[in-house]
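Deliverable D4.2, example record:
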Amino acid sequence: MTTEQHTIRSEWPLYEVFVRGKRGLNHVHVGSLHAADDEMALRHARDLYTRRNEGVSIWVTRSDAIAATSPTEKDSFFAPNADKVYRHPTFYDIPEHVPHM
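Output generated by the structure prediction step:
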């Protein structure tokens, strides 16, 4: 790869990749990659992260489109939820036949 090709690729946006496994119920973050556009990101994610047919669904999103909390905000951001016990089903009986709870 020439220096010019490397420079062009390093200027491509960074994408975060999420894969749902065959037995999984949700998508799991598996890594990141650079791509020129969404379609290329999907193709590269398939080639990099599902080479052994371990996935049934792939999500890619540009890293700069993700809004996230900072680890330093942990206490102040999540603390208000502690006083809302009704949000946590700790005092409900969940029937055994209800899956995935």
